[in-house]
């Protein structure tokens, strides 16, 4: 399983109620279901992925996070997970607020546009960065609103959203992001993993 | 008629109070079963049929000699696997395949009920079929499944009996019959009643048959079960056994010939009054209104796991109406999954060979059964 999913799973308390937004083929959900909590369901836009989830015995609703989160009541989940999709929404701010309305806590991961490889690509090649975490070209990327870890932290601070856990992932290396090392982690992290409360 | 008398029936001795206020008892429910009930009696599935269905989803229907209406979905190793599950299928009350319906004989007159049959509802149908569970001594079903009007019965069943099914699969249906659907049903009914042979519903006792009206009703309805794209691809403007238009009102086009055929075979197997009564039951179906406008309340306290399925080209019970049910269930934190299947085959998709649909049902049933009844010890 992806290192990212291991970290997300480690943040979740046993038997809590979980919604995985954009659950893909259900890999993370299946792990959580079998190891942490039976009370998990997914929201997924791709029909093919929904079929995959059903095959795995997962509860999943075909739908679009930007339109369909509204149907869930306030605080109806302990955790709402959003893995590497925030940047692909038309209105990420609205989605984030919806996650925090529906869930007591949100776990959001973002590919870091501030990573040094990304910066070098733009600086030396003068082309839009293409990396392992950002494999698409500018013309076919689903990512509409790329941000850096620093951008995201600033964004949350300005809105007084509590970042209860901030984790950096670089390759297999896991470390905490703090105020004191923010600039450094913004350069070295490939992925930021955040637990957020309103 | 005698053939129908010989079908397998369970006589419900209990009293059943209908929504219209009348009370019935000692009435027959024609049913069939497929597969075997296991020792723990936890593998039972009740399937509900659609408007013109019956208790023969699988195998050869002995009355029509045609294949069962759900042969694609039900049978050994199929989506609803009869090697694994015990499937009960009953003809709805109001129907014409042996259950208590307008063609049944009224003991007080010794004539068929005809228009004197009480107006029945989806709720009445479901309450009647629930008696079958007592007959089989099944306390809790594994699943309730149905498409179209069968899906409405699924919703009503779970609402009426919140702890009587582990899982529920309402397919291509709605919680509240739309104005468009009421309109289409009314068109069918008016076609029947405009046929002089209908004779105010007394055609059976007077040796008549409103087959022309019923055929038109079926033709109109049949169009609504398909999609524009499906029709265009299958028929286009192809001509029927002729090279040029004949400048008359014969069936020049293949689609005309097809619809006429559909109408003509339908009248051999279906009773016109049953068509009136069952379409009425569908029109009256409004689970939302039963719960004062809050559909969620219909499922409050239910522990049933739902799986809702719609089809992209179904304009009769479109995805949006199926989604209303998902939304209502999510609002109360119920366990609900949902998928919209891509298909050009319109509303009829649930009856046809649509692999994505059949696989979804199969996977959902098998995984759910495993999780609920074969969980690790």
How do the SSEs of chain B run, as a string of H and E? HEEEEEEEEEEHEHEHHHHHHEHEH
What would the CATH topology of the largest domain in chain A be? Rossmann fold
Rg over C-alpha atoms of chain A, rounded to the nearest angstrom: 16 Å
Overall number of strands of chain A: 8
**Strand order of the main beta sheet of chain A, please?**
3-2-1-4-5-8-6-7
Structural class computed from helices and strand pairing of chain A: alpha/beta
Instruction: Give the averaged pLDDT of chain B, no decimals.
Output: 96
What is the terminal-to-terminal distance of chain B? 53 Å
The protein's oligomeric status is: heterodimer
Supply the CATH superfamily name of the largest domain in chain B. Answer: Alpha/Beta hydrolase fold, catalytic domain
CATH class of the largest domain in chain A, anyone?
Alpha Beta
How many domains of chain A, as an integer? 2
Find the structural class of chain B using helix and strand composition.
alpha/beta
Q: Tell me, briefly, the overall form of chain B.
A: globular
How many distinct helices of chain A? 8
Largest interface: A-B, 19 and 23 residues
> How are the strands of the biggest sheet of chain B laid out side by side?
1-4-8-5-11-12-13-14
Biggest β-sheet description of chain A: 8 strands, mixed
State the share of residues found in helices of chain B, binned by percent: 25-40%
Please write the string of helix (H) and strand (E) elements of chain A: HEHEHEHEHEHHEEHE
């Amino acid at each position: 399983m992806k290192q990212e999913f291991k970290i997300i799973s480690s943040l979740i308390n046993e038997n809590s109620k979980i919604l995985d937004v954009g659950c893909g083929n259900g890999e993370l959900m299946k792990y959580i279901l079998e190891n942490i909590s039976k009370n998990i369901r997914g929201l997924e836009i791709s029909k093919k992925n929904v079929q995959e989830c059903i095959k795995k015995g997962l509860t999943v609703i075909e739908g679009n996070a930007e339109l369909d989160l509204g149907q869930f009541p306030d605080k109806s989940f302990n955790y709402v997970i959003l893995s590497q999709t925030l940047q692909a929404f038309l209105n990420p701010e609205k989605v984030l607020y919806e996650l925090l309305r529906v869930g007591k806590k949100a776990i959001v991961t973002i590919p870091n546009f501030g990573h040094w490889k990304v910066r070098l690509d733009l600086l030396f090649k003068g082309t839009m960065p293409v990396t392992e975490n950002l494999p698409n070209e500018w013309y076919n990327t689903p990512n509409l609103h790329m941000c850096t870890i620093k951008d995201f932290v600033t964004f949350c601070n300005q809105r007084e959203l509590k970042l209860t856990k901030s984790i950096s992932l670089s390759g297999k290396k896991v470390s905490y992001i703090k105020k004191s090392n923010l600039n450094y982690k913004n350069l070295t992290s490939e992925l930021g993993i955040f637990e957020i409360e309103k | 008629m005698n053939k129908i008398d010989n079908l397998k029936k369970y006589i419900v001795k209990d009293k059943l109070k209908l929504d219209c206020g009348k009370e019935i008892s000692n009435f027959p429910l024609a049913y069939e079963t497929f597969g075997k009930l296991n020792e723990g009696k936890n593998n039972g599935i009740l399937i509900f049929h659609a408007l013109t269905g019956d208790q023969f989803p699988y195998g050869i229907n002995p009355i029509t000699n045609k294949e069962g209406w759900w042969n694609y979905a039900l049978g050994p190793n199929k989506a609803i696997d009869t090697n694994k599950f015990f499937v009960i299928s009953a003809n709805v009350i109001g129907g014409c395949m042996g259950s208590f319906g307008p063609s049944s004989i009224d003991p007080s007159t010794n004539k068929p009920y005809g228009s004197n049959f009480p107006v029945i509802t989806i709720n009445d149908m479901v309450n009647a079929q629930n008696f079958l569970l007592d007959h089989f001594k099944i306390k809790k079903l594994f699943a309730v499944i149905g498409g179209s009007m069968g899906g409405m019965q699924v919703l009503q069943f779970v609402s009426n009996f919140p702890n009587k099914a582990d899982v529920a699969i309402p397919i291509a249906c709605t919680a509240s019959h739309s104005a468009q659907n009421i309109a289409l049903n009314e068109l069918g009914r008016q076609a029947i009643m405009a046929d002089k042979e209908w004779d105010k519903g007394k055609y059976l006792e007077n040796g008549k048959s409103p087959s022309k009206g019923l055929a038109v009703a079926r033709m109109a309805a049949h169009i609504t079960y398909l999609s524009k794209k499906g029709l265009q691809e299958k028929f286009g403007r192809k001509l029927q056994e002729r090279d040029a238009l004949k400048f008359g009102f014969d069936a020049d086009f293949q689609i005309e010939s097809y619809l006429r055929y559909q109408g003509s075979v339908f009248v051999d197997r279906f009773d016109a009054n049953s068509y009136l009564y069952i379409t009425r039951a569908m029109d009256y179906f409004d689970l939302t209104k039963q719960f004062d406008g809050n559909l969620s309340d219909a499922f409050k306290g239910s522990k049933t796991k739902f799986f809702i399925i719609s089809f992209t080209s179904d304009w009769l019970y479109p995805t949006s109406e199926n989604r209303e049910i998902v939304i209502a269930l999510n609002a109360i934190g119920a366990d609900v999954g949902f998928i919209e299947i891509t298909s050009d085959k319109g509303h009829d998709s649930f009856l046809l060979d649509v692999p994505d649909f059949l696989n979804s049902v199969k996977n959902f049933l098998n995984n759910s059964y495993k999780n609920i009844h074969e969980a690790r010890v």
